[in-house]
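> forwarded from #structure-qc
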């Protein structure tokens, strides 16, 4: 992936992003070229004939030539355990959201938004407003997202929430060290195999 195409995966973790709010409101920007290319490749896979799909991926979608290639590349190493990370990062977000300091920052954010004429309990409710389910961002959506960002700053929401979540994450990492180390070992093995192919 081109470095300039890389978008931080948690850019809107605590609410609207300042750089995107003016143009896109609560929506992500258009996909970068590398993502467009990847999605096109998946679309092309889906368009293959049934016989080719069965040969390439087996009846279950996890066999066939795919299974043979994986065995040659990584032996019997299990696929990376993305669930280990995804589960823990979700737990950390929700646990940090319930801490007293984050609840206080969210109240301050909501009060700020109310003064600006917007009635939302938290940034997630603002981003999920059904009025934004339009093909393109509306002026009202962009105005709400701009107010959201201003209130994040006023309430120091991102700073407070990130600090609380970091503490929770450190605790979860210690409690799940074995599982995370195993997930990393699997990922390292698969990445090493991919690099051998790409550099070969």
């Amino acid at each position: 992936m081109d470095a300039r195409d890389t978008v931080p995966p948690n850019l809107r973790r605590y609410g609207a992003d300042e750089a995107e709010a003016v143009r896109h409101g609560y929506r992500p920007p258009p996909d970068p070229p590398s993502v467009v290319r990847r999605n096109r490749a998946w679309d092309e896979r889906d368009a293959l004939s049934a016989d080719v799909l069965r040969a390439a991926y087996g009846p279950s979608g996890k066999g066939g030539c795919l299974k043979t290639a994986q065995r040659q590349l990584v032996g019997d190493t299990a696929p990376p355990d993305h669930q280990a990370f995804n589960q823990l990062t979700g737990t950390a977000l929700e646990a940090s959201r319930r801490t007293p300091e984050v609840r206080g920052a969210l109240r301050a954010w909501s009060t700020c938004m109310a003064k600006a004429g917007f009635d939302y309990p938290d940034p997630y409710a603002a981003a999920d407003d059904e009025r934004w389910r339009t093909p393109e961002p509306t002026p009202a959506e962009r105005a709400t997202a701009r107010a959201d960002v201003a209130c994040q700053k006023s309430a120091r929401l991102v700073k407070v929430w990130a600090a609380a979540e970091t503490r929770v994450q450190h605790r979860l990492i210690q409690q799940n060290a074995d599982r995370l180390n195993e997930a990393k070992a699997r990922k390292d093995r698969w990445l090493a195999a991919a690099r051998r192919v790409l550099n070969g």
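QC bot note: DSSP finds ten helices and no strands in the chain. The mean pLDDT is 88.
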